[in-house]
Specification:
Blueprint (H helix, E strand, L loop, with lengths): L23 H5 L8 H4 L31 H7 L21
Length: 99
Amino acid sequence: MVCKKCESKLSKVAAPDPFTSTSSSVKEGSRKIGENKLLTRPGSSKNRFQPYQGKCKDCKQPVTQNKAKYCHGCAYKKGKCSICGKAILDTTGYVMSSK
């Protein structure tokens, strides 16, 4: 769970950009076929995703997003944004078990 403000901070998947080789930018030579834009852009080495760097504040498990404070399970149970910790969802009416 992420709030509207933190949606722009979400990590991107490092997969090749699927585009057709018949586009005009390929014919001009400005783009390469099969180029991974996340790895070739400038400044990508300092913003790389490091999966085991962050820990959840509550359960101390590794988080799966960059700059996240809570794992997905703890964020949902508390109704908070996993990145900034702001309350998003009122969970008082929900029946949630601890495990």
